[in-house]
Amino acid sequence: MKFLQTGDLHLGKFFYEYQLLEDQKYVLNQLINELKLQVETDSPYDALIIAGDIYDRSMPPAEAVQVFSEFLAKIQKAFQELHVLIIPGNHDSALRLSYAQQILEQQRIHIRTDLTRIDEPVIIKDTAFYLMPFLQPASFSLIEQSDEKTETKKNDKKLEKQKKIQPSKTSLEKNLDLFSNVDENQAENKTDLLLKDNSEKKETFLMSQTDLAKEAIRRINISKNEDIPSVLVAHLFTAGSVESDSERIIWGTAEQVDNSLFKDFSYTALGHLHRCQQAGSRAFYSGSPLAYSFGESNTDKVFLRIELEKNKEPIVTKIPIEPLHPVISLTGSFEEFFDSEKYDKYKNHFLEIVSMTETIIENPVALLRKKFPYLLSFRQDKAFERIASKEIVNRRLSLSNNENNINEQFVLFLEEIYSSDTDFTEKKALFDKLFAEMKEKNHETK
Fold first, then answer.
1. Nearest residue to 304 via CA among 290, 291, 321
2. Could you tell me the residue ranges of all domains in the chain?
């Protein structure tokens, strides 16, 4: 068994103000080329895994949907035996992604968004692939009937028969179930009906990722055939993994899942984190195929080739990705970027400049864009640090305690913004002129 793993495509994403679709198409073409290369060497892939976050938003732009549609069409046409395995991530709408999934499944494109099918594997060459969509809070609920006999039984196996764990319905479906055959006169209001129902049924929603993942894997294990290799495809955050600043922030550790949950699988293909990394003895994140923040500028972007044999450890090979516009953050003075040719080789990079110039540069991006058309960020940390320094604070304190005239105050202000050795002759002359005009106008109004 040989398959290619990727994920976190985030089609339709913007990087600052730049639309990334052309960059994403460039990467998808590299993926197709890797599939072709293995066919040419008589060692074709059996499957392609895309582990969630196909799109960047739950309502993706039409252009992003078209890009993915064209990509799948090329795959289906060029590789007649290849299976494509897709799950939704936390950025995707599972409902929208499920469009035409029954038809696509007949074409070996398996998009699994339905939790009721979580224990139904896709069997490819005697290997079982279990596709676990991103688990939203309350995806499962625990329902206990208020039966005294049930509550007194302590045996775990017997309790399991009394408890039904099922995908939870939407709030609308629940309300329809509750009120469909009930006369409103039978209760004072709908709240009473809800309370009455809850007294007969104790329903506990599974909210944490750990509880949800445990329940999902429990279901899978019930139906799993231990005689053949099994692969889990999931979109979640494993404890101890390294996140990037381009991922959707989740505070704390409540949404982190222990990688010991994957121990019974031959391999686990993970999505959600954007850095390629190992998350257990047989679990890997492929990471995103593109850097989506400057914090990822030194991160290698790859596809993963997985070779799997029964009763053997998986062989994982990294396939480097060449971006259309590499992402880089550079440090230097404004003059070095503006006047010299030192950084000209980065003109086709998505660029962030961290300026070491101590004076504030007005409209630096506009000044540098002709030379660096993909300049997205210009940070003036050094200048702002100087402004916030103790020396400036003391100067302001001195200014507030002295009765300086307005001209002296203006000069002190200029020294804060620029530097004390800058020639302010023109600015002072303009200020004096404007201030004199203002005084004259005020005098006339009196």
1. 321
2. 2-135+224-320, 140-205, 327-386, 402-445
Which stretch of DSSP H or E encloses residue 267? strand 267-271
Q: Provide the 10 A C-beta neighbour count for residue 322.
A: 9
pLDDT digits (tens, 9 = 90+) for 115-137: 999 999 999 999 999 999 999 88
Give the angle 54-277-50 at the CA atoms, nearest 5°: 20
CB 28 within 8 A of CB 35: no
> What is the C-alpha to C-alpha distance for residues 140 and 133, in angstroms, rounded to an integer?
13
Tokens of 76: 């289906």
- CA proximity to 421, closest of 365, 369, 359, 368: 359
Largest CA distance in the chain: 97
Kindly tell me the burial class for residue 93, based on how many C-beta atoms sit within 10 Å of its own C-beta (0-12, 13-18, 19 or more): middle
Q: Is the pTM of this model over 0.85?
A: no
Q: Express each pLDDT in 163-207 by its tens digit.
A: 444 555 544 444 444 434 444 444 444 445 444 455 556 778 888
Instruction: Quickly name the fold that domain 2-135+224-320 has.
Output: Purple Acid Phosphatase; chain A, domain 2 (3.60.21)
Plot region of 312 (φ>0 → left; ψ -120 to 50 → alpha; else → beta): beta
